[in-house]
Structures are given as C-alpha cells and as structure tokens.
Amino acid sequence: MWQLIGLSIIQSIMLSFGQLTLKLALEKMPTFSWTTNFWGDLLTNWWFMLCGILFGGASILWMYILKHFPLNMAYPMASMSYVFALLFAIIFLHETVAWNRWLGVAFIMIGCVFVAK
Question: What's the domain range around 84?
Fold first, then answer.
C-alpha cells in the first residue's frame, strides 16, 4: 500500500510539473497558426520539451502502477495531481486560490485516504 502511495505521489508531481511547464511554454508562444514558424518555435521551446519529458515519464510510471496495483485503488490516487497543480500554480505562477478550491482539494485528499485504506 505504501508503495502505491509513494509511486502515486511521484507520478502526480510529474504530471503537475508537466502542466506547469506546458503553461510556461504556451505563454512564450505566439498566437496559434499552421505556419512553419509557429511549429518551429514550438518544437524548439525548452519548456515544451521539458513538458513532453515529464508527461512521458509520468505515463511510463502510470503503466508500472497499473501493472502492479488494482485499478480501483490506483486511479483515485492519480487525483493527487490536482493538489500538486494547485500548489504549483500558487508557488510558481503566483496565482491566488479561492477558499472553495481549497475545500475541494481537502475533499480530494480525504477521498485518497479512504481509497488507501
């Protein structure tokens, strides 16, 4: 059980950092267009490359989790990425979070505790 929790935390952090780096990549991009300049800028954007690495690593870890743990326990644990994404938005993007979102995060964590038991 503790192994599932630990792996789920790592996988959730990777997913959340992937979302953060995707946001940072898109902020540096011009308006979307089907031009070679746009796609060249996207494919040479370091934040976008890092995003792909993080999403890829999280996907490989998720495959390991699914192979070794019951889906009914593993899938709810993936919701921890919501918690980490919220924290990363505050820490790295200096976003403010309303109280009702904190309440939602608390419910998510309570749900993870019930699933883990």
Answer: 2-116
